[in-house]
Design brief:
Residues 3-165 form the Glycosyltransferase 2-like domain. With 261 residues, this protein is α/β, with parallel strands linked by helices. It contains 7 helices and 12 strands. α1 (12-23) links the parallel β1 and β2. The relative contact order is 0.15.
């Protein structure tokens, strides 16, 4: 039913926790593709042994660093009916895949997105110490058109039917928002469906923690430029969406003619 693609980089303890959440699933109808872009640690053999015959652990030694290239390699391997992406520091609640499978089997949607939970934690210790402030997040108000304006759907909260992803790949040259670009590319001509499932747990540590000061997380100066790049690449589907893009850019002090996007 599912191929779960996990890109990972130098976070073996957090990856172990992620895999343990998969081992605990009440639905075991899945394969796992783990793509590591560093050889600095041993794979979590104890957890992988519990997934024997249902995992690929790939060491990626070429291409640009970062999750985009790793996700692309995972896509080349994944062969299940639905493709899921999961970050190496996030987890599933034990019944997540069972509930997701039940919904997908009803009418086989092309792209399904769902709600999620946020768990704040202190990663200076292991296992990470839970902090107050966790919450359930509903994104039921996200629409097909609103995704063309800004993206509020976490990458781990989309189920892609595999045929939708033929020819769709992650853009490795983007500093940020490659997951948004990927979603928009898959969405062309497709229908996006919401389901009120919140079995994905997105674990967050302090914004100033060392693990957060890498790659795109500290590139706020690139936000407007990359958004404009995506607007040009993925034209708005209607006038209302074009106006919404114009209004959002205007709130950031950027004045654009409608013809620009």
């Amino acid at each position: 039913m599912f191929s779960i693609i996990i890109p990972t980089h130098d976070r073996p303890l957090l990856l172990t926790r992620t895999l343990e959440s998969l081992i605990a699933q009440t639905c075991q109808d899945f394969k796992v593709v783990i793509v590591s872009d560093t050889a600095g640690y041993l794979p979590p053999y104890n957890q992988l042994n519990q997934l024997a015959g249902r995992f690929d652990y790939v060491l990626r030694c070429s291409g640009k660093p970062g999750p985009a290239a790793s996700r692309n390699l995972g896509l080349a391997i994944a062969d299940s009916e639905y493709i899921l992406f999961l970050d190496d520091d996030d987890t599933y609640r034990p019944d997540h895949l069972a509930r997701l499978k039940a919904r997908l089997q009803r009418d086989k949607p092309e792209l399904l997105f769902h709600d999620f939970q946020i768990q704040n934690e202190d990663r200076t210790v292991f296992p990470p110490a839970l902090l107050p402030g966790g919450q359930k997040v509903s994104i039921a108000d996200v629409t097909q058109d609103s995704v063309y304006v800004r993206n509020r759907i976490p990458n781990s909260c989309v189920a892609y039917r595999r045929d939708v992803l033929e020819g769709v790949r992650n853009e490795t040259d983007l500093i940020i928002y490659e997951d948004w670009d990927f979603l928009l590319a898959a969405l062309h001509g497709r229908r996006l469906v919401h389901h009120p499932l919140d079995g994905v747990v997105i674990h967050k540590s302090a914004a100033t923690a060392p693990e957060n000061m890498r790659r795109g997380n500290s590139r706020d100066d690139q936000i407007v430029d990359v958004m404009l790049q995506l607007y040009r690449k993925h034209p708005a589907p209607n006038m209302a969406t074009r106006l919404a893009r114009q209004a959002l850019m205007g709130s950031a002090g950027v004045v654009l003619e409608l013809a620009y996007f």
